[in-house]
C-alpha cells in the first residue's frame, strides 16, 4: 500500500496531530514516567474510534512504530516512542453508566477517577486500581488488581465487552458472544492485540467503605505481616486492604516529628457495615499499637484518590513485581530487611491480596493465569530527582533479588519494568501458547509491540 503523509493523516482525523515544531509538542510527547524522554514523529490526540483506526492504518502503511497511550501511567514508558507515532486516547474519557443494568461504558482514555466519579453517583463500582490517575485501559488489559478484587474479582473479570481497533484497522467488539478468542486474550494479555477504544463493565453496589491507612513501627514488621498472612487466608471478602512500606508524608494525623520516617503500614478497605469494619480494624490494632491512623467511613472514590498526591506526573519510575502463593517466614524476613530502606516518600512496596473472588475464575478462563497466587507484590520505585536513578533502581533490584526466589516465576505485567521481557512466558504459564495463537490471528506482524510483548 502506498505510504501517506502527515498532512493526509491530519485530513483523516478529527483530533489534533502534533509534530515536532508544532506548539505544544513537548507537552504532547511527555509521559507519566519522566525517565522516558522520547520524540515521536507525531502524537495524535484521538477523539473517536475512527481517529484510532486512522492512526493504526497510518502506522501500518508507513512501517512506523506505534505507541498506544491510554489515560494513565505506563511505568515502562510504552505510551511513547522515538520516531514513531503515538495514538493518544487520553481525550476519550467519557463514562456512561446504566444504573438499572448495573453496567458502565468507559472510553479508552478514561482513568479510574473518571470511572469512580460516574459510577459513584449511583452507589456502584467495579474493581479499579489504588491510584485514581491509573488508566482504566492499561489496568484492565493487564488483569486489574485493586481494593475490590477479593470481593468482585479483577477488573478484567468484570469486563463484559470491549471495542478494539485491530492491526488491520478494523473496529470489532469482543465479548463472550463475538470474537471470543480476542476477548479471552484481552483479559490479562495486555495491549498486544489492538487498541481498545471502549470498555463495558459490570458494576456492583459499593458506596461508603470503612477504612484508611494505619502506620506501625518497623519493629512490628514480622507481627504485622504474619498477622496479615494468616488473617487474609479466610478473611471476609469485603476486606480488600494490604500492607505497605511507606515513608510518612507530612499529613496532619501523623505526628510532626515522625514525618519523613519509614513505617510498615496497613491500608484498609472494608465494604461491609461500619460496625463489622470496626471489629476488623480492632483486630489489626491488637497486633501492634499504631503510631498514627486515619480510619473511618468514606466514599470508595475518596479512598481511591487518597494517595494520588504521592504519585504526580513527572517522577522517575522503576518497578518490579512478583506473584506469591505463600508469604513464608523467610519472605517476611526479606521484606523486613529491604522494605525499611524505601528511599523517598513517593516510593513504596505493596503486598496485595488476590484470593477470594479472584480464585473462583479458572486459570485458563482468561489470559490472567495466576489464579492460585494469594498475593501480588509490587516494589514501586518512584522519586523526583534523576540524580538518584542509579541508587534507587538498585534498591528495587536488590529487593526483588531477595524476594524472587521465594515467589512464583511470573508476575503481574502491570507492575513490570521494560527490562522484564524475558519473563513473558512465565507471566502467562499454560496460557502463553494460546495467546501466541490469538496474536497471530489479530496482529501477525506485531504492530502492537510496545508492551510486555507476546511475539506472534
Describe the protein.
By secondary structure, the chain is an alpha+beta fold. Helix 8 crosses helix 11 (329-338) and helix 11 (329-338) runs antiparallel to helix 12 (389-403). The strands form four sheets. Strands 12, 13, 14, 15, 16, 17, 18 and 19 form an eight-stranded antiparallel sheet that branches. Strands 5-6-10-8-9 form a five-stranded antiparallel sheet. The protein has helices spanning 6-12, 25-29, 49-62, 112-120, 136-142, 149-152, 180-186, 221-232, 274-285, 300-305, 329-338, 389-403, 424-428, 432-442; strands at residues 17-18, 42-45, 66-69, 85-88, 95-98, 103-107, 124-125, 159-165, 171-175, 195-202, 204-205, 208-216, 242-247, 262-270, 292-293, 296-299, 316-324, 348-353, 375-383.
How does the SSE layout of this entry go?
Blueprint: H1 6-12, E1 17-18, H2 25-29, E2 42-45, H3 49-62, E3 66-69, E4 85-88, E5 95-98, E6 103-107, H4 112-120, E7 124-125, H5 136-142, H6 149-152, E8 159-165, E9 171-175, H7 180-186, E10 195-202, E11 204-205, E12 208-216, H8 221-232, E13 242-247, E14 262-270, H9 274-285, E15 292-293, E16 296-299, H10 300-305, E17 316-324, H11 329-338, E18 348-353, E19 375-383, H12 389-403, H13 424-428, H14 432-442
Parallel strand pairs: 2-4, 3-4
Antiparallel strand pairs: 1-2, 5-6, 6-10, 7-11, 8-9, 8-10, 12-14, 12-15, 12-16, 13-14, 13-18, 17-19, 18-19
Helix pairs in contact: 8-11, 11-12
